Amino acid sequence: MMNIVFLAVLAAHSALPAPTDDPLCAALEQAGISRERIRIARADLDRLTNRAAPGGVLAFLFDEPFQTKWFMQHVRDELLADLAAATELRLESPFWTGIPGLPESATISGSPLGAAEAISRLSRWGDRVVRRTLLGNPVASDMERAAKPEALAEAIAALHARAGANLNESQRAELTRRAARLPLRAQRAAALVLLVADRTVTARDRAIRKLDRAALSDASRLNETLSFDTSEESAADRDRLEAFELGHLLSSSQELAAAAHLAAKLLVLSARPHQAPPRGELFRWDTPCGRVLINGNGADVIRDDGPYLLIIDLGGNDTYHAGGAACGLDNPVSVLIDVAGDDRYMTRDKAPATGTTRAPTTQPRNDAAPALSTSRPTDGAQAIPCAFGAGILGVGILIDCAGNDAYDVRECGQGFGLFGVGLLDDWAGDDSYSAVSESQAAGVAGMGLLIDRGGNDAYRSFTASQAFAGVSGMAALIDLAGDDRYLAEDTEIRFASAQSPQHNNSMCQGAAVGLRADYLDGYSLPGGVAILLDAAGDDDYSCGVFGQGTGYWLGAGFLIDAAGNDKYAGVWYVQGAAAHFALGALLDESGDDSYTATMATSQGTGHDLSLGFLADLSGNDVYRAAGLTMGSGNEGGIGIAIDAAGDDRYETPAEASLGWVNAPTGVRATMPTVGLFLDAGGRDTYSQPFAGDGRRWGAAPDRSADRLPGHRFALGLDCEIDVQNLWPRAR
Fold first, then answer.
1. What is the mean pLDDT of residues 575-591?
2. Angle between helical axes of 56-63 and 68-83 (0-180°, round to 10)
3. 571 and 599 in contact (C-beta within 8 Å)?
4. Which alpha helices (H) appear in 163-183, and where do they start and end?
5. Which of 599, 581, 677 lies closest to 637 in space, CA to CA?
6. Which of 172, 447, 627, 632 is found 20 to 30 A from 287 (Cα to Cα)?
7. Which residues pair with 715 in a beta bridge?
8. pTM metric for this prediction
9. Is the pLDDT score of 302 beyond 90?
């Protein structure tokens, strides 16, 4: 449940009355509806969803659709405060003292605890509130321990003892000797991470204490074992989800993220360009939880011949085939810190086993559940289950501190959590991210987080990526700077959509989806919360079906672009659109932007008790779309499209756009269906003659603003309106 403080904040924002002299209020009243009635009622949801409970964010915005902009800006403000605000790093702990080359103080970007606060925020929005940083630094005592002599050797020995494999006297002496040869900064950084990792192992075991360990014993099959699909037998999925105690991993991941960030800061701040670290492998030790590997300066190749507990690389252009990914009972924790260099993170492929390729699931109709994991490509498989900031029944963290890096996985990487937590935090450089599926911030029954702090970056995937949340998932892709490109591939068709087989089912760029089972056994599972936040730059977004702020089956997907001249291109269910009791929202805050949706149900459109929301706050924008778009509602859905300022151009069909509702059928005819389009300023151009500056229109046969029969409400309005009154507090 959402915490009391957050609910109080939401209530405070809901309490202000709507202004009485607002032309929008007057136009709505003439159309036969008030702001207060524009909502999706929980009683109506219960009638159609077998009483599946929406998450806290979804329930709040269903009840207060006009709060969607405020909520998205609240998300932006909190994440940017955690990740981008200037902060003075206090170097008072013994952890920092006595390190050659370390300055007396440092001003850094973002929280001293790195992504720990962002994990906390996302856990709150995903109804799993854990905030280990509330009372300060949760790893302060670990920092003091890490500064003691032989701390690294003691931390590794403790991991052996935990597993019942105590080191003998000779082994302990050899471990101590090897650790002592390391540079002091590497000793302390590694010791800090491993001290916290020891607690993370305990937390992971608590999280899975009710699960069948025998069923989880084969790490190579965990993706298949744990994935949710559309088979007719979902009881095991529901039982596993109920038994898994994710809060333990969310708590430990915040501590581990803080420790890894502080360790990386120590290594970066104490690096001396005139005195490069020695080349090659400096330290290696195999523990019961995976290998500890510390490399110096040089072009190293890290193989995928076993699980890694910790990798630290002090410099050089390196190639990684594994690392920063926890998978399975015996590898509950994995951390990778690369200090410098232009690096390649690339999983290798293995040939597919005969008869293992799954066939696409047959969909019952064109609005059925997207097949997320049932039409895998047939051209090989990934040699390891996950990689590069990924956790499957564990916590995986990757921090790359500098360089122009390339990340390439087939699936399950680059900020991926499946019954686990995965974090990829790239601090600088022009980076490229390539994947096929379930990557680049993807969470299913867990959390996936990708943070890119600088540079012009390129993201490419096919499906379920770039901020994707599945069942009970939490996902956030946060890009803080640069001109970036987000591509959900739609020219090579590997995941044909049910809506249009000529296009991929993208589910990318702020997409959340649950498991639909109303046409199977009736036990559907709600989707999670997905957030794509791009803070700056001229960005390019492209996808097929489902993307760019979209939701399906009790999922909530958000795309927030804070600045720049941006381009959005998609096909169907894109740019603030949702279907089946879900929410899809896109907020663009500034710049001259273009929006293109080539087929249907897009740009602020809600279908089947869903909320679709699109808001562009400034700039001269261009909108191009086909049918059921730009503020349209269908079958009890609510669609809201608002352009707050600028000279805009709208190229639309004559019907089913610019404030439109279709006539609902069956039981949905007893529920409100709402379509609202508002252009609040500027000199605008419309391709349809019924719309224009200073005009009001509706969805009557001649597009007049007459009241519609039943519970249908449609309004198109172009007027000059005070921007302060544009975002009313409904109740």
1. 98
2. 140
3. yes
4. 169-180
5. 581
6. 447
7. 676
8. 0.93
9. yes
Q: Is the dihedral of CA 86, 88, 93, 95 positive or negative?
A: positive
Q: How many CB atoms lie within 10 A of CB 51?
A: 9
Q: How far apart are CA 494 and CA 516, in angstroms?
A: 21
Average pLDDT estimate for 339-352:
90
Whether the predicted pLDDT of 269 surpasses 90:
yes
Q: Is residue 10 predicted with pLDDT exceeding 50? A: no
Whether the per-residue pLDDT at 375 is higher than 60: the answer is no
Q: Which amino acid is at 720?
A: E
Q: Are strands 421-426 and 290-297 parallel, antiparallel or unpaired?
A: unpaired
Backbone dihedral angles phi then psi of residue 257, each to the nearest 5 degrees: -65, -40
3-state secondary structure 65-119: HHHHHHHHHHHHHHHHHHHCCEEEECCCCCCCCCCCCCCCCEEEECCCCCCHHHH
Q: Report whether 584 contacts 550 (CB < 8 A).
A: yes
Query: Which ranges in 244-352 belong to alpha helices (H)?
Result: 246-269
Q: Which residues pair with 597 in a beta bridge?
A: 570, 625
pLDDT at 731: 43
Give 519 or 213, the one with higher predicted confidence: 213
pLDDT digits (tens, 9 = 90+) for 141-190: 999 999 999 999 999 999 999 999 999 999 999 999 999 999 999 999 99
Closest-CA residue to 435 (of 446, 419, 421, 448) = 448
Spatial separation of the C-alpha atoms in residues 386 and 388, rounded to whole Å: 7
Residue 521 CA neighbour count, 13 Å, CB half: 13
Among 573, 546, 350, CA closest to 462: 546
Alpha carbon distance 26, 32 (integer Å): 10
Torsions phi, psi of 467, nearest 5?
Answer: 75, 80
